[in-house]
Amino acid sequence: MSTEPELHRNDSSPSRNPEDRRKRRRPEDYVEAISQHSTRAKEHFLHPGTHYRPLAQFLKGSLHKSLRIRTVSQPRPHIFAALHNLDCSFDDPNRVRFFDSKEGLDDFASYPLPRKNCGQLLFLRGYPSPKWVQLIGAKYRVDAEFFRRHLSIGQISEPFDISVLPSASQNIVKLSITSLGKQNVTLSKQGEGVDSLKDFHESLGDDPNVVGDSIVRRYSVHDKTRFSIEQDVTMCVLKTGESWIAIILLDCGRDLDEGPAGPWIESSSRPHMHGFDNVFNPVLLFEPNICLKSFEKKEGTSSSNGTQLLQKRCFQQSCSLLHTKSYGRFLSPAVMNTDAFYALSDVFNFAACAESQFLGLLKSKFMSETHLHNKEEHMKECLLDLKDHKLLLHEHIQGIQAVISIINDRGGSRWPRAGSASDAARMVSMTPSARRSSKESMLQVVVERPAITEQEMLPARSGAEAEAEAMAQRLLKDYEALRSDAQALSDLYSEGMRDIRDNAMLAESRKAIEQARGVGHLTLLAYFFLPLSFTSTLFGMNFKELGDDVSIWAC
Hints:
CorA_TM1_TM2; alpha+beta; elongated; membrane; 2 domains; transmembrane helix; seven-stranded mixed beta sheet; transmembrane; MgTranspt_CorA/ZnTranspt_ZntB; 16 helices
């Protein structure tokens, strides 16, 4: 009798000993658990773990990385982790704690878990080190699949081992943020940028002393002066007893001029970077009465906000500020503390605004180049450009549709939601200042909310539920509008491609007509030339001399 089921049960069954559970929370035990699962081959296990081998090697530091030239020799100090305590008010100095990429590891290890009935947001910025992943994974018992998917670049994964099934992504939410850049693009072909990006991926993590390099998933050239990069935000929500924590992995970490070389910066221009203006356009966020509110809620100085503004940073991106104290400034603290999706709504809103600007760039580019579709010398170039951008749009439409599904599910079925816990328990768990801020915020919700019908009152919702639902509906409308705009733009690109093909066929028809006319002229010339040529040839032949009294007809 085979012993495989018994071995599998012994390996996977959780221990009931509390001491074993505490040991399993150690970083080394977290790595060992992943490493053991990665050794399970398909020949012996129904659930093989061979696709976790690269992650296990990464956590052990055994992935082979060749040290390459970096854009700067001494990177700036970097805030890698930012922890938001949602039970504190925005003015409370304990609301946000920042942890440096080097010295902050030990401080983070000793930082307590969220209090009862309280939530936390943990932002991790850039490419992590194995030690940070080990510590966070062990402390919060994070599913290894969460890290594996986010690190699915370079040597960490194969392109076919990321499942697209919704059931495989119940607590893994991924958003894409597009940043628009302006610079003199010297790459002659898009393929050169792809090769350079591949080298960039292979260089990530090559220096163990540098943590938090920005990750770029896609680099696209739109014309000679404009390009875009795509970066991911991967999120999950974990419950720790009666509290919860949301982990947000941001691709945006250090400025791109501090990390490995990439196609967005040429080797010849690196020494002169301080002479450039800002390379990336800002992401413009909309908030009603923002000009008035910004005076009432000052966002603090650079040091208190977790940023470094000591010198001009040409490659700074707007998403590099998502982790700061400014996050959630216009949200209700009480609802953030009880509803995980609402607490993460600013991330969804930021991604939507970035996507809107990206679609606006593509639309303006299409409109400004429409006149080139009729010029024969530009047809081939325009057709290839439209084809590439249509494929890019198709992937963006798929991403937008995925986000719409996430919003409809409110992130996940197990995410904490407003109304699941009593308001009294929530208010008791919050600090006094946060409690006052919560009452003012909820009062504002009640005052600003229009009259509701009886249908809307069934079932009756608390103020927190109403606020969370209103935010979800707002995001849903925004993303549905983005999907509609992207689809309309894709149709424009398809129409443009058809116009170019029609114009090309018309040009070929004109050429054929001109060639036919030329052939007609040649035929007319041949009509007269051939008999004349035959006659001249005939009389030019050598004949035997005839007598004077014999005619040629007699011959």
